[in-house]
Amino acid sequence: MSGLRGILYRSLHQTAWLTLLGMSLAGLPQTALSNPFEYKLANGLRIIVKEDRRAPTAVHMVWYHAGSMDEHNGTTGVAHLLEHMMFKGTPSVGAGEFSRLVAAAGGRDNAFTSKDYTAYFQQIPKQKLAQMMRLEADRMHHLTLDPKEYAQEIKVVMEERRLRTDDQPQARLFEQLTATAFQAHPYRTPVVGWMNDLENMTVRDARAWYERWYAPNNAFVVVVGDVDHREVFQLAEKHYGPIRPHTLPERKPQIEPAQDGIRRLTVKAPAELPVVALAYKTPVLRDVEKDTEPYALQMLAAVLDGHDAARFTRSLVREQRLAVSAGTSYDAISRGPGLFYLVGSPSEGKTRAELEAGFRAELMRIASEGVTAEELVRARAQLVASQIYKRDSMFAQAMEIGQLETAGIPYTAETRILEKLQAVTAEQVREVVKKYFRDDRLTVAELDPQPLPKTSRKSTISTRH
User: What positions does the domain Peptidase M16 N-terminal occupy (predicted)?
Assistant: First the structure.
């Protein structure tokens, strides 16, 4: 990160900056603290509006509390498949017409499915918001799911799996790593689904998923942009209000059993470089006020990776020359259990085992010696900057709200999360390393590179909606 310059003057960021500078929020006028605004329709649909007047545009997003973790064996990938089918028409909007209408309005649209949720968005001129709501409300309860369209789209989804997973060695590695790290929790299955399930899926499976989860009382709408929240609420009443709610399936706890020891796997695939990936089971954020460990883990990730002076780049890449690349990945916001990843490729002449030992040695050093004050200051600045910079983008602001809400974290806690991150101490970072980075929480995956094919397979099917 290049620092925090260039943002201070923006009034929309006032509360975050006062927090960053150690000032109190109590003295702010109420109007500065009331944005975003929220309204709940009688059918259970929540409307969250964040006013941002910097450009005459708006982001409109519909989030469904349904992702791949809600699937069952035999129908993995159905959440993602239904996302594709949502663009295939209703009685009033033909197949493929949704995106054409958005483009004609001067906007862009797309959708994405994760383990936790499915979301749809449009970025449009603000005066086109009513049209977007009408289109989204229409497909929320009038989706056609034509068998002929399904027969074509399932081929697209299978090709997407081939292109993005089967033909990508690192994607295959992480798919197998996750499937090994989790034995009971549905996070073990890939979002795109297993190929055999896709091959045997039917339009009836897609319809059952749609009827089970696509309801106003299982969704919320986020609008960020140059809008008046009262007008947005009125539009929501008009377009979404008439949709009837329905009883949702019971969600049962799905607790991953305790791991009894280190797990290892090797994936052989055509690739240029070997890869080593270590995944440790770690907690995620559940209670913004009471939790401390997820914040310390985020700080640890920033100490190890993310800038030229970070430990992995400095020690493993430059000084020891153990790796050509080394990094981390940790997401504190999720519905299910968490994993903290260490990933790298060994340098020429170094083995995967040597790089794994190098990763472990860096963790052991933190467990015994802790992190320095300088490292903590730099990591804190990096994390705070990344949070603040999100507010420069209307889309990023809408994403932040949606991801927090789908994980069960109130979007109103955004500033408090920033404060808690800033309060992390060196001792807390050291303690999470000592507590969670142990062999009985570890899964190690290695990519064993095989000779590359002389010619690569080319797709003839577009995976774009």
Answer: 47-191
Interval 187-240: pLDDT, tens: 999 999 999 999 999 999 999 999 999 999 999 999 999 999 999 999 999 999
Domains of the chain: 36-239 (3.30.830.10), 263-450 (3.30.830.10)
Residues noted as catalytic: 83
Residue 222: closest CA among 368, 402, 387: 402
For 412, counting Cβ atoms within 10 Å of its Cβ (0-12 exposed, 13-18 middle, 19+ buried), the class is middle
pLDDT for the residue 465:
59
Write down the mean pLDDT value for the chain: 91
What is the rounded CA–CA span in Å between residue 66 and residue 213?
6
Instruction: Count CA atoms closer than 13 A to 127's CA, side-chain side.
Output: 2
* Predicted local distance difference test score (pLDDT) of residue 16: 35
